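Hey team,

Filing this mostly as a record. A colleague (T.K.) asked me to run one chain through the structure pipeline before their review meeting, and I want the input and output archived in the tracker in case anyone asks later how it was produced. No errors, nothing strange. Just documentation.

Input sequence:
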Amino acid sequence: MEEGFAIQNMNNKKASVLDILVITVMVFALGLFIIVGYKVFSVINTEFQANPDLSDTSKSIVGDLKGKYVGLFDGIFFTFLIFFAIAILVGVYYLNLHPIFFIPSILVIIFTIIIGGVIANTYSDITDASDFQSEANEFTLMPFIFDNYITFITVIGFLIVIVMYAKNRITE
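Output structure:
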């Protein structure tokens, strides 16, 4: 009985195409959080290294952590993007939507692509600012993703639409 209830609730979720808008904003927020975090960590590291009261061991540990930050969080950012997209696709597979929602789905995707362009330009403006430029240039995956953000959003968006509506044809 409970299993049927869970499946019934999954089938009542109609705003799944809006999940692409959520991923667009969340990836942007995570990217900014990582860049700002690296900026703060760089300032802390500089203060640690300049403090004569701290031992060489503590300075070495903080310096090593700073060296690992970029690779670690670049990978976390990319992994978050991929896993979140997969989670949305899996969730969308369990939806039963009427084909009449196809056109509104495409309109939402187009709107999200436009928002993605604005977000990519905003990220570029922020990371090109002198305050964050040196830190942002150390990352490799984040600039690549935001340079191609519209392509990523388009692919994920149309995969969502394909999974939502192609599944209905396969199961009929």
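Quick notes for T.K.: Helices lie at 2-11, 19-50, 56-93, 102-128, 133-136, 141-147, 149-171. The mean pLDDT is 84.
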